[in-house]
Design brief:
This protein has one domain: TIM Barrel, CATH 3.20.20. Strand 9, helix 5 and strand 10 form a beta-alpha-beta unit. The strands form four sheets. Strands 1-2-5-6-9-10-11-12 form an eight-stranded parallel beta barrel, surrounded by eight helices. It has a two-stranded antiparallel sheet with strand order 3-4. A two-stranded antiparallel sheet has the order 7-8. Helix 1 packs across helix 2 and helix 1 packs parallel to helix 8. The protein contains ten helices and 14 strands.
């Protein structure tokens, strides 16, 4: 079994300071949070950008500042979001990929997202995949339901996505796949050969899904984007607190945590960079 890759999803597009006072918003705050998470055991930081007033943005200049703030403080894989926020145009969401981050997310379809719809048409997916390939960016294929995994498998079989593929199963979003062991087992039964996977449980599902990820040979995403509590009724004090808990749990279960260079090897990122 490979070492465990922990991803810290630091900010997201939806959580507010009113909900979580420790939410990092500015590039400097995100850089500090990334360094704290790296020290706690994270090897990937998943980042969304915000304006100073906290509203979400895909402004390339702000992402550039975030990347600089992270990179001057620690060695982690910076994974930018191309999901952005509901209602953003594909062109807007794709803009920061030109900064050549090591990784970026690529949602493999559309999904009901609470009371909204996150729309990702096939032509948009193709455009995003081509741009990531051109820029040497490793895509993380975001899967919110089983149909998205079936789509990704078809695209992989046609050579429209690079291999080895890395998937992130985002489970528990209202409108997406439920965060249950049975649902995760089904997704794993459908994984293409050679793929790696991460699981992200939303809200109270974060810790149970993280535990299954550790035990079942996958990788784990935690952080304020997905969950703002440490336990029921108790807000987490930082993203790093959530990362540290997963690292401790992995140690108790006998699974070592991957350093950033080990994560790059596990994810086959040198292959992606060589193609670019």
């Amino acid at each position: 079994m490979d070492k465990l890759i922990i991803t810290a999803a630091l900010t997201g597009a939806e959580v507010t300071r009113q909900q979580q006072p420790a939410l990092p918003i500015t590039p400097e705050e995100i850089g500090i949070a990334a360094a704290e998470c790296a020290a706690a055991g994270a090897s990937i930081v998943h980042v969304h950008a915000r304006h100073p007033d906290g509203t979400p943005t895909q402004d390339k200049a702000i992402y550039q500042q975030i990347m600089a703030e992270v990179q001057k403080r620690c060695d982690v894989i910076v994974q930018i979001s191309t999901g952005g926020a509901v209602g953003m145009s594909p062109q807007e969401r794709l803009a920061p990929v030109s900064l050549k981050p090591e990784m970026a997310t690529l949602s493999m379809g559309s999904v009901n997202f609470g009371q909204d719809v996150f729309l990702n048409l096939p032509d948009d997916i193709a455009r995003f995949a081509a741009e990531m390939q051109a820029q040497g960016v490793k895509p993380e294929l975001e899967i919110f339901d089983s149909g998205m995994l079936a789509t990704a498998k078809r695209w992989l079989a046609k050579g429209q996505l690079p291999s080895p593929a890395h998937f992130d199963f985002v489970m528990g979003v209202p409108g997406g796949m439920a965060a249950t062991p049975q649902a995760l087992m089904y997704l794993l039964s459908e994984l293409p050969a050679g793929a790696t996977w991460t699981v992200a449980g939303i809200g109270s599902a974060q810790l149970p899904m993280a535990t299954l990820g550790i035990l079942w040979g996958g990788h784990v995403r935690v952080g304020f984007e997905d969950n703002i509590h440490y336990r029921k009724g108790e807000l987490a004090t930082s993203n790093a607190q959530l990362v540290a808990r997963v690292a401790r749990l992995a140690a108790e279960l006998g699974r070592a945590v991957a350093a950033p260079d080990e994560a790059r090897r596990i994810l086959g990122m040198t292959l992606v960079n060589a193609v670019a």
